[in-house]
Amino acid sequence: MHRLLxxxxxxxxxxxxxxDLRRPLNERGLVDAAALxxxxxxxxxxxxxxxxVIAVSPAERTRQTWSAVEKTAGAVWQSAAVESDADIYxxxxxxxxxxxxxxxLDAATVVIVGHxxxxxxxxxxxxxxxxxRARLDDGFPTSAVAVLQSDAP
Length: 153
Fold this sequence. Notes:
- The protein is an alpha/beta fold.
- The protein has one domain: 3-Layer(aba) Sandwich (Rossmann fold), CATH 3.40.50.
- Strands 3-2-4-1-5 form a five-stranded mixed sheet, with helices on both faces.
- The longest helix has 15 residues.
- It starts with a strand and ends with a strand.
């Protein structure tokens, strides 16, 4: 079984004069990212194995999101391999598929921490035609996670 977790970064601020790539999480974002980590800790079937890769956009808000998630998710998530991947920033769904495939060659679980619209659009594409697909029609909010499983790599 192969698993893909698509995570949209937590809520970020818009400080004046700060480039998009350097935008930090705001207070709500820090709280929401920690809550996502707590949720992962409560889902033992999602626990990473030695064959788990976490690919994170180089944007400040995605790195901060994963850092907060990892801290509250516990030691098992802190031991997973984390890689910065510039292809995730401003990526289309097609590019995110390539990222998932590239990182998934030797991994059973791939976690991608990225941005909308790409993350949300890919989640919708991969969830079709499941009953859960309709839940994505209203968008993919900050701190959202889609968990997708497949027998195919």
